[in-house]
Amino acid sequence: MTAPARQGGLLALLVLDAVLLAALELFFLPLRLDGLVLPKLGDVPAPVTVLVAALTTPLLVRVAARFAPPRYAALPLVAWVLTLLILGLFGPGRDVVLLEDWRTLVLLAAGVLPAALVLGGALGRAARAADAERKAGSRG
After folding, report:
1. Secondary structure of 44-77 in HEC code, one letter for each residue
2. How far apart are CA 139 and CA 61, in angstroms?
3. Confidence band of 36 (pLDDT split at 50, 70, 90)
4. What SS3 state is found at 34?
5. What residue intervals traverse the membrane (predicted)?
6. pLDDT at position 35
7. Which is higher by pLDDT, 68 or 139?
8. Residues 65, 10: Cα–Cα separation, whole Å
9. Which pLDDT tens digit goes with each residue over 10-25?
10. Considering the entire predicted model, what is its pTM?
11. Which residues are registered as beta bridge partners of 34?
């Protein structure tokens, strides 16, 4: 298998991971400490999927930036956001799955902001490397 085909396959796998993670994070966002799934501790919201999004979305972007051309590093983040919005607004059976409270905003922020920082760092490193290569080529 050639390197571009391997990179494309890995990128497709990362995008699929982002889509699956967004779906799971969205569907488990309404978890509460009510004794059904999590322990009973006052029936307060427990958006544990926010932590999952904060850890996995930047990781997907970092791996994509490492193994694919820099311009494609944003694809897992774009897939995650689109899945969250499309599935959240036009979910199964046309049900609105997005919660109309603070947990949705926190999930979006926890997934997008760290991943955007990782993406910016990856794009900045790629630009510096290209600039250094261009300068080295003009000297020689």
Report:
1. EECCHHHHHHHHHHHHHHHHHHHHCCHHHCCHHH
2. 34
3. low
4. strand
5. 46-65, 72-90, 102-124
6. 67
7. 68
8. 11
9. 999 999 999 999 999 9
10. 0.87
11. 40
